[in-house]
Amino acid sequence: MIFLYYILSKDQRQLSMVKLFLDTHVSKKAKVIIYQNSKILAQVQEKEPLKAVTKALQKADLKLENLDKIEAHPGPGSFTGLRVGAAVVNVLNFALGRKESVQPRYEN
Asked: CA separation (Å) from 80 to 22, 49, 59, 77, 99?
């Protein structure tokens, strides 16, 4: 439930945006939440991040291009999990022609 708190409390100024939040901080588990105005439109959990993204988009009846922002869990968490999440989000942003970049935060 930590990820729900993170996405629902972050940046309340942009309430009308449709956002995708990818949480891979637990190794071999990907949670995707698509939300707008603090309302969850879709929530999916899979082993593979791209499958989770695809299923969440289908569940919310959206296309990747409809998303205003794509975010990843910033950490702390599994080293590999955070890197996978950041890589997936960065690739999706690149594919959409966006210059946004996500970098995970690691703690010792």
From this structure: 14, 13, 27, 9, 23
pTM: 0.82
| Euclidean distance between CA atoms 73 and 3, whole angstroms | 7
Q: Any alpha helices (H) in the chain, and if so which ranges?
A: 2-9, 49-59, 79-95
CATH numbers and ranges of domains, the chain:
2-10+17-95 (3.30.420.40)
> What 3-state class would DSSP assign to 96?
coil
Query: Taking residues 63-89, what's their average pLDDT?
Result: 92
Tokens of 46: 């899979």
Tens-place pLDDT, residues 13-69: 455 899 999 999 998 899 999 999 889 999 999 999 999 999 999 999 999 999 999
